[in-house]
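hi! just following up on the protien thing from before. the input was this:
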Amino acid sequence: MKILHVLSGDFVTGAETSTLALIQAQVQAGHQVFVAAGRFDHPVQAQVTSLPIYNRGFFARIYNILALRKLISRQAIDIVHAHSRAASWVCYWACLLTRTPYLSTLHGRQHLHLSNKYFNVYGPLCVTMCENIREQMLKKTHSFQPERLIVIRNGIHL
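and the predicted 3d structure came back as:
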């Protein structure tokens, strides 16, 4: 399977660290893995494409959506995994254009505003790192069904 991980960070975060552990397991299982991120500082057995996902400006968002669409099509990506709110926004549109399945992981509590309270850009299935994040999304948004919000703890190798 070809898997694309999309992160918004332009510095090292817990999302990058846990994504690295996930990528290592996926590569070990025989999958081909790709990363699109502002930066990905850990050495990784994946093709890394630098994209300013962290830039939330209108034209930057359009650029990122089109760049992801191109990457998904060129590499024949089977599934996309977004690891932040900004990544989920661009993945939602890129995957809609390419008809590629995707999911998101919420690595921390979400800053909620009108659009993400009522509009689900996180995908039909969403992973949270703990019950508190899951409960926040179920109680404070109108876009999740309980069966589509799954808790999976961080897989960090110490």
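The chain has one domain: 2-151.
Residues 147 and 153 are 17 Å apart (CA to CA).
cheers
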